[in-house]
Write a structure and sequence with these properties.
Blueprint (H helix, E strand, L loop, with lengths): L3 E2 L5 H4 L11 E4 H13 L10 E3 L5 E3 L2 E7 L8 E9 L13 E7 L11 H7 L5 E5 L14 H13 L5 E4 L5 H13 L3 E4 L1 H9 L8 E2 L28 E5 L19 E5 L3 H4 L2 H12 L2 E2 L11 H11 L3 E5 L15 E2 L9
Parallel strand pairs: 1-2, 2-3, 7-8, 8-15, 9-12, 9-13, 10-11, 10-12, 13-14, 15-16
Antiparallel strand pairs: 4-5, 5-6, 6-7
Helix pairs in contact: 2-6, 4-5
């Protein structure tokens, strides 16, 4: 291969980059790489790959006769890109003088995207040209035609309403790499006059993403990760950070199992634990048992999550916007959904040698 382009930092898109032969250049967004490296450093590991050049929004990169243009999109990974790939075919020697010698072919790879985040999806659609080939994800299509989830702003409003009605402590369980969810939680805390407290992993990712979270506090109250420099397992602050219930504390998969130890110091009565991940993670036996215990101690556990992927309406709008001649579905268990477009263009379900 001449080059590898990584659209964002989720492991299903970067997990094999460590096996790329060193002479092959890897291209990735700077923010995405910083987050990847910061999480690896936190866990005491190596990122596993290096980046030749950081991608910039709408700045083309030339690889051989291909031009790859990164187009910023919204996803549950911060700094995600779609890739517009184009090539100018050479003139046909059989065509007479005066013919159009620039027969440009274009392909859009969407990677993962959504319309429920904080970026304006209409602006994205306006930035996209018509293309010959569209390679699009369809992750949520197996969840049904009517699948729809709330916008991040709706999650923020819900969190504000919930915390305003409850006087106890508030927690939000999230993936630290979901930067939009960090922003949602931070905004909700500010709007309800609660102190926003992050565990060290959340703070690490927020810094790598370049967030400016004024007034936020970092706590290692039940930090257990041995890879964190300067923090011994089970270390706990001796300050009065939790003397009052006016806080929203971030917890992650690394720290959630230890939340009960905080209950030894403060009451959880009339408190809230926002579950900021898909419900399936709540149903895991260990997590389900812990949540049952926390509910018995006084916490309610509402879901505070929206998908990082496009629903059927969003995919439909993108297809209409770029008007492709060919659609190649990827990242889906319901590729048959795309059959509705077969009267308008070619849909390729198994791509085995295809020329634009």
């Amino acid at each position: 291969y001449d080059a590898v382009f990584a659209s964002h930092y989720h492991s299903d898109h970067t997990g094999l980059l460590r096996f790329v032969i060193p002479v092959i250049p890897i291209y990735m967004g700077e923010t995405a790489y910083k987050i990847t490296k910061s999480v690896a450093d936190y866990k005491g590991r190596e990122a596993g790959f290096s980046v030749k050049s950081f991608l910039e929004e709408f700045v083309p990169v030339t690889v051989g006769d291909l031009t790859v243009t990164p187009i910023p999109c919204d996803h549950s990974a911060y700094g995600a890109f779609m890739f517009l790939v184009s090539v100018d075919e050479p003139a046909d020697a059989s065509v007479g003088a005066g013919a159009n010698i620039n027969n440009r072919k274009t392909l859009l790879y969407t990677a993962d995207y959504r319309s429920t985040g904080r970026k304006d999806f209409d602006i994205l659609l306006e930035s996209l040209p018509d293309v010959d080939v569209l390679i699009t994800e369809g992750t949520t299509l197996s969840r049904g035609e009517d699948f729809h989830e709330p916008r991040e702003q709706e999650l923020e409003d819900f969190a504000v309403e919930t915390m305003a009605a409850r006087s106890g402590p508030a927690f939000v369980y999230l993936s630290a790499q979901n930067v939009d969810r960090i922003i949602t939680a931070y905004n909700a805390a500010r709007r309800t006059d609660r102190r926003f407290i992050m565990d060290t992993l959340t703070d690490t990712v927020a810094r790598a993403a370049g967030l400016c979270l004024e007034g936020a506090v970092v706590s290692n109250v039940f930090e257990m990760h041995p890879g964190v420099p300067g923090i011994r397992p089970g270390a706990a602050e001796k300050s009065d950070l939790f003397a009052k219930n006016d806080f929203l504390l971030c917890v992650t998969p690394q720290t959630l199992p230890n939340i009960e130890r905080l209950n030894r110091r403060i009451s959880f009565e009339n408190g809230t634990l926002f579950f900021g991940r898909r419900e399936k993670y709540m149903l895991k036996p260990v997590t389900a048992a812990l949540i049952a215990l926390l509910k018995a101690r006084g916490l309610i556990v509402p879901i505070l999550h929206t998908s990082g992927h496009a629903d059927s309406n969003t995919i439909q709008r993108l297809i209409t916007a770029v008007d492709p001649s060919v659609i190649i579905p990827v990242h889906t268990e319901n590729a048959a959904w795309f059959s509705r477009f077969e009267d308008e263009c070619e849909v390729i379900y198994e791509c085995r040698g295809f020329e634009v």
